[in-house]
Design brief:
heterodimer; A: 297 residues; mainly alpha; ABC transporter involved in vitamin B12 uptake, BtuC; two-stranded antiparallel sheet; 73% helix; B: 353 residues; 16 helices; 71% helix; 2% strand
């Protein structure tokens, strides 16, 4: 493998990894607060991709408007899911909420099949993002650099919100002790809704960039990236935002590099993430940056 | 007040009579109903076996497993590879030749069912050793991961599984007697199991693992045992399914398959054997009945076009509704008994049967 090719794979992995990371943040924030695997998160990602497809490709809106509509639409869907399917189950056993989450994910996917039809549709990439240029012999497209850059900016912004603002303080407090936070006069349901909104918006951004990278959308496109992003969140340490990003990048590198160095393994590409998950759960269940969760007796 | 002895005689008599009636029904069905209805009735039994085995893992022992589709896949493939004739196999493997040791194996159906169960159970046991140390939703995600890995392996091990093309022309060995026979054996074993001390131990592990451990129960061993038994059921159910539908491919065993089984167990009632049977009847018939919405409906001169895919939308909405409004399912943790049924009849004037 030449150095040029390696750099190309490296940038490719950086892009895929940061997309996994963006989705993983939604999982890790919701899990950190509610101890709930939000199975529907991958489908919110899919909705984001579809919204941008419809507004730009079908209705010929400018990209800026389309992106705005997609983020807003996906955020509203995320809020709706929380309100309808999760909030009534806050005091129920955790496993009930989990089954509800599975039901919601199943529902969104099949509704997408009904509304958008099951056919995959091609996304038209804006030519200015695809204009190739080369730096020192490495061929690059602006999109390849844009994805990690946007992800980096968004994650920095999110870290500022979580660690420097009042709502961020409330989020961290809820993840430690929901009852005490409620007693302190924090409107817990509103903060949880905010968490869902942020997670869904980030998933929508990831969905838009995913649709640009692999230029097509289909109703089940969120399932496998969703699972992988959850695995990334576990790998990085569930509940930790930098961890989710780190886990996503690690997963992106494992996938791209293993296929780059051993092309024979490409059929097993989707299995790597699950193997990684099982290894990490057995070796270090708290992940790279997670806090230890203790069973309360 | 009837004495205990009399009650038992009465119950046994009632059970015998209803089993007899059911046998008459099974004898009547193939000659009087069309192939489609026959298939649904068959599916009910298979789904009941699968539901029961998932219930053993999840409802009785409290291990949230999302990997059942993977064990079904193992069972379906093992059985199909054993019952296909050598000539069929030579014709089917187009992409790559079949592994030589596999090409000439041919066994009767019953033997293939047993093999399907045993091999699925073996994989279940192997997998359970590392992952049953996890609890709660992590276990769910890990089992889901394993089921996905099994599917990816099946897709890629072309010399053994024929890859993504799947297997076609499996002889339709699954008759009503076969599927209901298996269900009867399963049911009997489950009832005996849950009434035995082993059943109590499993319930103790589910309700409070730490307390169970304090009582000297080797909880890990018990969980592995229950998981392995459940996987056996998954394998047999998958094998029956393959021999009913006669075509299998890796796409059949996606996570959606596990969701339908989860629906059966949740609707029926977690931890209730009766519940899984009721759930299987309801979910299987409903899934078929919902096909109405996908076909065009004519009312007078108006024609309402069918909506493809709508069936699963309604299905998933029902799952959400059940979990939000009636979390314990239809049966809760209760079980069927004749006294309960007769009591119900008496209370409502004998008409409520």
């Amino acid at each position: 493998m030449t150095l040029n090719m390696f750099v190309q794979h490296f940038i490719n992995a950086l892009g895929l990894g940061s997309l996994y990371g963006l989705i993983a943040i939604g999982y890790t924030m919701v899990y950190g607060i509610l101890r709930l695997i939000n199975f529907a998160h991958g489908d919110i990602f899919m909705l984001g991709a579809y919204f941008v497809f419809f507004s730009t490709v079908m209705y010929k809106m400018p990209w800026a408007v389309g992106v705005g509509i997609a983020i807003l639409g996906a955020t509203l869907c995320g809020l709706l899911v929380d309100r309808v399917a999760y909030r009534p189950l806050r005091s129920a056993p955790r496993i009930s909420a989990l089954i509800s989450a599975i039901g919601v994910s199943f529902f969104i996917e099949n509704l997408a099949v009904v509304v958008f039809t099951g056919m995959p549709r091609p996304v038209v990439q804006p030519p200015m993002l695809m204009k190739a240029f080369s730096v020192g012999g490495v061929r690059l497209v602006p999109l390849g650099l844009m994805v990690p850059a946007i992800s980096f900016v968004l994650v920095s912004g999110l870290l500022w919100v979580v660690y420097k603002t009042k709502p961020g303080l409330a989020m961290r407090s809820i993840s430690h002790d929901i009852e005490t936070t409620r007693l302190m006069g924090v409107s817990v349901d509103r903060i949880i809704a905010l968490t869902f909104a942020i997670g869904s918006a980030l998933a929508a951004v990831a969905g838009i960039m995913w649709a640009l990278r692999y230029p097509r959308v289909e109703p089940f496109m969120g399932i496998i990236p969703g699972f992988k992003a959850f695995i990334a969140a576990v790998f990085g340490g569930i509940g930790s935002i930098p961890g989710a990003m780190l886990g996503g990048l690690a997963l992106g590198f494992v996938e791209i590099m293993s296929v780059a160095f051993f092309p024979k393994l490409s059929g097993y590409k989707d299995a790597f993430a699950f193997v990684l998950l099982i290894v990490i759960l057995l070796a270090k269940p708290t992940g790279l940056m997670g806090e230890k969760l203790e069973d309360k007796i | 007040m009837i004495a205990a002895q009399d009650t038992r005689t009465r119950d046994n008599a009632l059970t015998l009579v209803s089993v007899g009636l059911f046998c008459v029904f099974l004898w009547w069905v193939p000659n009087n109903l069309d192939g489609y209805k026959l298939r649904i009735i068959n599916l009910i039994a298979i789904n009941a076996i699968l539901g029961l085995s998932l219930n053993l893992i999840y409802g009785m022992t409290g291990m949230f497993s999302l990997g059942h589709a993977g064990f079904m896949a193992i069972g379906a493939y093992v059985s199909a590879l054993l019952v296909l004739t050598p000539e069929q196999k030579v014709q089917m493997w187009i992409l790559e030749p079949i592994a030589p040791w596999l090409a000439n194996i041919h066994t009767p159906f019953i033997a293939s069912l047993l093999a399907a169960g045993v091999i699925a159970a073996f994989f279940g046991w192997l997998i359970s050793l590392p992952i049953l140390r996890l609890g709660g939703d992590y276990l769910g995600i890990a089992t889901l991961g394993f089921s996905e890995i099994i599917r990816i392996l099946i897709t890629n091990f072309t010399p053994i599984t024929n890859g993504s093309l799947g297997l076609k022309g499996i002889p339709s060995h699954t008759t009503l007697w076969m599927s209901y026979g298996c269900l009867a054996i399963f049911l009997l074993c489950m009832v005996r199991l849950m009434r035995s001390n082993f059943g109590n131990v499993l319930r103790a592990v589910r309700d409070d693992e730490i307390a169970a451990r304090t009582m000297g129960i080797d909880t890990f061993k018990m969980r592995v045992l229950a998981f392995t038994l459940g996987c056996f059921g998954g394998g047999v159910g998958g094998a029956l399914m393959g021999n009913l539908i006669t075509t299998i491919d890796p796409k059949m065993f996606m996570i959606t398959q596990t969701y339908s089984l989860l629906m059966i167990v949740v609707v029926g009632g977690l931890g209730s054997i009766t519940g899984s049977i009721v759930g299987s009847i309801l979910v299987t018939t409903m899934l078929e009945w919902l096909r109405i919405v996908e076909n065009p409906v004519t009312i007078g001169t108006f024609e309402i076009p069918g909506i493809p895919g709508m069936r699963m939308v309604i299905f998933s909405l029902l799952l959400i509704a059940v979990i939000i409004f009636r979390r314990e399912g239809i049966m809760g943790m209760r079980e069927f008994s004749w006294s309960w049924l007769l009591g119900l009849g008496r209370k409502r004037g004998g008409a409520a049967k």
